[in-house]
Design goal:
The complex is a heterodimer.
Chain A (H helix, E strand, L loop, with lengths): L3 E3 L3 E4 L5 E7 L5 E8 L3 E8 L6 E2 L6 E7 L2 E6 L8 E8 L11 E2 L3 E5 L1
Parallel strand pairs in A: 2-11
Antiparallel strand pairs in A: 1-3, 3-8, 4-5, 4-9, 5-6, 7-8, 9-10, 9-11
Chain B lengths: L2 E5 L2 E5 L4 E8 L6 E6 L5 E7 L5 E3 L5 E5 L4 E6 L8 E8 L4 E3 L3 E6 L1
Parallel strand pairs in B: 2-11
Antiparallel strand pairs in B: 1-3, 3-8, 4-5, 4-9, 6-7, 7-8, 9-10, 9-11
The chains are: A mainly beta, B mainly beta.
């Protein structure tokens, strides 16, 4: 059974703190993704990675960075958390269907982050 | 660029009634389309996907979707709603190396 896990289900941080969100997949997938989900806006892509040490900006990368040192692990970093980063964060992974196209994405349970 | 639009942010049906959730796509290439479901406090789970093999796609939990190129649509249906179907549903289209999601439709099922 495929599995994507995220380090925390709920997280409360203070403004200005550095925040790490961890995601691990056990499917040997090449691609990994970080989204944030806000009511009425659906899922918005923050960053994705198609290989170890490789990363690409998504639609809303400002205020975030990522790290992928190992194939199975993809970390999202909030360098200095702000209240407008309060959101649900979802990690996903997928294999590649040739020529860089992504297959079905598998999602983790999400981390609900509150920044006070 | 590929994109999807979900018509209706909230849909309410009675238990046993037909479920119809609407999705229209925009794509410059033959699209790969997906429907995902999200139950409260959970991640997204794949319901079904269209990959050009057949226009009518059957998924899990009795859901199906029909790809209509002439209407650029990929609507999700279920003949008879169950209370357990209450969730948020997302339509998505595969991009070059990512996925583009709609804003979501919250389905409420009334007893």
């Amino acid at each position: 059974d495929v599995k994507v896990t995220q380090s925390s289900r709920y997280l409360v941080k203070r403004t200005g703190e550095k925040v790490f969100l961890e995601c691990v997949q056990d499917m040997d997938h090449e691609n990994m993704f970080w989204y944030r989900q806000d009511p009425g806006l659906g899922l918005r892509l923050i960053y994705f990675s198609y290989d170890v040490k490789m990363k690409e900006k998504g639609d809303i990368p400002e205020g975030y960075s990522v790290s992928r040192e190992k194939k199975e692990r993809f970390s999202l970093i909030l360098e200095s958390a702000s209240t407008n980063q309060t959101s649900m964060y979802l990690c996903a992974s997928s294999s590649i269907l040739g020529r860089g196209t992504t297959d079905t994405q598998y999602f983790g349970p999400g981390t609900r982050l509150t920044v006070l | 660029a590929q994109s999807v639009t979900q018509l209706g942010s909230h849909v309410s049906v009675s238990e046993g009634a037909l479920v119809l959730l609407r999705c229209n796509y925009s794509s410059s290439v033959p699209p790969y389309l997906f429907w995902y479901v999200q139950y409260p406090n959970q991640g997204l789970q794949l319901l079904l996907k269209y990959t050009s093999a057949a226009t009518l796609v059957k998924g899990i939990n009795g859901f199906e979707a029909e790809f209509k190129k002439s209407e650029t649509s990929f609507h999700l249906t279920k003949p008879s709603a169950h209370m357990s179907d209450a969730a948020e549903y997302f339509c998505a289209v595969r991009g070059a190396n990512d996925m583009r999601f709609g804003a979501g439709t919250r389905l409420t099922v009334k007893p």
